[in-house]
Amino acid sequence: MTPSFTPLAVPLALAEIRQLCATGAARSIREDAGLSLREIADHLGVGVTTISVWERNEQRPTGDRALRYHQLLLELANRRAFRVVPPAART
User: Fold this and answer.
1) Potential cystine with 5: which of 9, 20, 64, 66 (Cβ 3.0-4.6 Å)?
2) pLDDT tens sequence across 18-71
């Protein structure tokens, strides 16, 4: 399913996902969520190599796949920001 974006939001989302990949933030978000390259690739309907080269900033994410990846990373990052730490883990 392709995310719904307004015309202006598409180039902004593409710029943001490319920035997330270029800075290593995309990989960090994925790893913090405990997801493998295979799990993300399967969810997006792409190969593991596609996600890997995006995260290593060897290829720029484009098209609907990039928009879906962007949406997924934003949701994962949002959940990470509001992650509840169990009382036993607090110091």
Assistant:
1) 9
2) 999 999 999 999 999 999 999 999 999 999 999 999 999 999 999 999 999 999
Distance CA 11, CA 43 (A): 23
Domain count across the chain? 1
Residue 88 belongs to a domain: no
Specify the 3-state DSSP secondary structure of 14: helix
Which are the contacts of 62, defined by CB distance < 8 A and separation ≥ 6?
A: 14
Please give the residue range of the domain that contains residue 14.
9-78
CA-CA distance, 53 to 21, in Å (whole number)?
Answer: 9
Dist CA 74 CA 83 (whole Å): 14
Answer whether residue 32 is part of any domain.
Answer: yes
pTM score, two decimals? 0.81
SS3 18: helix
In a domain? residue 3: no
